[in-house]
């Protein structure tokens, strides 16, 4: 069995490496900087996932060729660097399947990970792994359920088998559009939910925000041909609930900091920020009603204060649910 390749040495890539290695498989995690790879090797731990020691069968490399012949590669970089990474290194990866674990919409092109994989690595089968799962929970072996989406049902079933473990339970779908949009959009709603809590608007307001945010997610996904069941599943509703209610979430925490007008470390990965901008621009261009997303984009870009955004949301015309 070939080595499972993981491209992107952050918290999620490391957590997936650890849990897959625990089933006895060989794993190689690629970091884009040798200094970072060396630091992980020295400490046998990734600073992005503190407290988790790496098993012996997890190799850390900064040489892309070390995962070049892997039949299966997980893409675990942040969304906004995925296209650049595959443009640079995609030609050296001969994987039969590539599984995108990043959540978001590419700001430069408005595309999701499946389209980016298809453009840069046309010989591979693209898939998506997404759903409610904090890297720390996966790495600690806590029970986690995710959606594995692949348009090719045969490859999807094989990936489901390969990537499921005793603690990581994968459900399968062929709806890659719904899976990737659910994961992308829930991060925008998590920022909004954080703002609601940070500004002290209360738990009832958060529940209203999550519900109306979910309606908005469904509307956007439907415009792209996604199946409603996918949005109602782990990759949409499931991840929305987790991310909008947990202080472990970076998107939620970023929103809380915005709401409290507090400093937030710019080094922390907050996928919902760029995705809010990307989705807001698409929604405007296509005439899709996305008031929460538009508000988040406006607030992040400093074009509207939080109080202005809230006032506008609350003064929208009354309508049927
Ligand atoms: N951390 C989590 O709990 C989960 C994360 N994800 C998704 O996984 C993706 C990655 O997130 P994390 O691992 O948490 O991020 P992270 O912030 O822990 O790590 C990001 C890593 O990306 C690497 N990187 C940065 N620029 C790069 C480039 N140009 N080329 C290659 N690698 C580069 C850095 O070395 C860094 O270690 C995100 O889209 C996130 O939404 C999905 C589920 C859970
Ligand atoms: O995607 C996640 C949980 O499913 C992680 O959320 P954050 O990126 O907000 O930490």
Automatic annotation (TrEMBL):
Q: Where in the cell is it found?
A: Cytoplasm
Enzyme class, UniProt record, top EC level: oxidoreductase
Entry binding sites for substrate: 103, 250-251
Where does this chain mainly localize?
cytoplasm
Gene3D superfamilies noted in UniProt = N-(1-d-carboxylethyl)-l-norvaline Dehydrogenase, domain 2 (1.10.1040.10), NAD(P)-binding Rossmann-like Domain (3.40.50.720)
The UniProt keyword set, sorted, is:
Cytoplasm, Lipid biosynthesis, Lipid metabolism, NAD, NADP, Nucleotide-binding, Oxidoreductase, Phospholipid biosynthesis, Phospholipid metabolism
Q: Which residues form the Glycerol-3-phosphate dehydrogenase NAD-dependent C-terminal domain?
A: 175-311
Q: Which residues form the Glycerol-3-phosphate dehydrogenase NAD-dependent N-terminal domain?
A: 4-153
The residues that the entry says bind sn-glycerol 3-phosphate are 103, 131, 133, 186, 239, 249-251
- Function field: Catalyzes the reduction of the glycolytic intermediate dihydroxyacetone phosphate (DHAP) to sn-glycerol 3-phosphate (G3P), the key precursor for phospholipid synthesis.
Q: Which HAMAP family match?
A: NAD_Glyc3P_dehydrog
Q: Give the matching PANTHER family.
A: GLYCEROL-3-PHOSPHATE DEHYDROGENASE, GLYCEROL-3-PHOSPHATE DEHYDROGENASE [NAD(+)] 2, CHLOROPLASTIC
Name the UniProt record assigns to this protein: Glycerol-3-phosphate dehydrogenase [NAD(P)+]
Q: What does the organism's lineage look like at the top? A: Bacteria, Pseudomonadati, Pseudomonadota, Alphaproteobacteria, Rhodobacterales
């Amino acid at each position: 069995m070939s080595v499972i390749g993981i491209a992107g040495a952050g918290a999620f890539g490391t957590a997936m490496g650890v849990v897959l290695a625990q089933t006895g498989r060989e794993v190689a995690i690629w970091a884009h900087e040798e200094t970072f790879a060396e630091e992980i090797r020295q400490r046998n731990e990734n600073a992005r996932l503190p407290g988790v020691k790496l098993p012996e069968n997890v190799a850390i490399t900064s040489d892309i060729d070390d995962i070049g012949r892997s039949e299966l590669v997980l893409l675990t970089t942040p969304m906004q660097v995925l296209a650049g990474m595959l443009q640079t290194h995609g030609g050296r990866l001969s994987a039969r399947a590539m599984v995108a674990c990043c959540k978001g919409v590419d700001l430069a092109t408005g595309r999701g990970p499946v389209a980016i994989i298809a453009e840069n690595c046309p010989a591979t089968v693209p898939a998506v792994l997404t759903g409610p799962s904090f890297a720390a929970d996966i790495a600690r072996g806590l029970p986690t359920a995710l959606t594995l989406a692949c348009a090719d049902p045969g490859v999807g079933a094989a990936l489901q088998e390969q990537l499921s473990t005793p603690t990581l339970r994968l459900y399968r779908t062929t709806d890659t559009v719904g899976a990737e949009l659910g994961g992308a959009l829930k991060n925008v709603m998590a920022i909004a939910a954080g703002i609601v809590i940070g500004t002290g608007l209360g738990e009832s307001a958060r529940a209203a925000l999550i519900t109306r945010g979910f309606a908005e997610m469904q509307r956007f996904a439907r415009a792209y041909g996604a199946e409603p069941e996918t949005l109602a599943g782990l990759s949409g509703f499931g991840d929305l609930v987790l991310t909008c209610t947990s202080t472990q979430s970076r998107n939620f925490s970023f929103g809380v900091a915005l709401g409290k007008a507090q400093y937030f470390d710019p080094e922390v990965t907050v996928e919902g920020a760029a995705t809010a901008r990307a989705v807001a621009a698409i929604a405007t261009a296509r005439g899709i009603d996305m008031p929460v997303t538009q508000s988040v984009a406006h607030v992040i870009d400093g074009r509207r204060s939080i109080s202005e955004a809230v006032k506008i949301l609350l003064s929208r015309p009354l309508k049927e649910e």
